[in-house]
Amino acid sequence: MTYKGDKPIISNRTAMLITDMALIIASFIMFQKIINFFAVISLLASLTTLGSAYFAYKFITSPKGQEKIKNIIVDNLKENMPGLIDKQIPKFTQPAIPSKPKAPINL
Question: What is the pTM of this model?
Answer without folding.
Answer: 0.47
